[in-house]
User: Fold this.
Amino acid sequence: MTTPFVILAVVAIGGAVAAMTMRKLVHCALALAVCFVGLAGLYLDLSAQFVGLVQILVYVGAVVILIVFAILLTRNDELPAQTGRTRFAGVGVSAVVFAVLAWAVTAGGAKMGAAGTPPEAAIKDIGGALMQRFVLPLEVVGLLLTAALIGAVVIAMEEKQSTR
Amino acid sequence: MNPLASCLMVSALLFSVGLGGALTRRSSILVLVGIELMLNAANLNFIAFWRYGPHPEALTGILFVIFAIAIAAAEAAVGLALILAIYRHSKTTDVNRLDAMKG
Assistant:
């Protein structure tokens, strides 16, 4: 566990906690951007450069902006968090999930993971894999993105008053 | 703790934070944000296993994450469009008040 890893992990988790606990929605969206930048740094630290840059482009550049636009287009009436039993149950469920995951990691993950030499993932290799071995999934993702684009426009489009 | 285990622990923490937020926040936009956080925790797991796994030259983890990011972006676009449509219909994004289909 190196120092950059600890710093980036603290940034990512702190951003996530802030995004899920702050009161104003816009602050939540900005904290989410901080969390995604921290995650991109973690990917760079794990020597996955391409994924780190894609994370910044797609998440910080597109998804957070989309969320900010959704906040702008809906009335921002500062909903408080759930109260009483619902909140208690939600926090309890997530704590139990974390306990189970942490137990699984500490009990089973100790055998692998010697920090060897960082693997090479040149962008040329990724492009070659996308064009040869993974060309069918790539086409399916293209189709899915087209369908999502059309679907999002159709769903969010203002319904016209039926004149006749 | 070895590097893989610490990566997995960060990812588990991120997943739990996202799950807790998705279950306890009342704004439907923030529920979507919690789901995005959980997806990102899964992506971090893929990258960690690719980095410390036995066959990093296969690039499977990286390509899986790229496809997952594309699908998450599509999901966010459609989800926010749905939230906008629901808001236009019922003038609220409070998940407690969107109970028209409650049995």
User: Anything to note?
Assistant: Helices of chain B lie at 3-24, 28-52, 60-90.
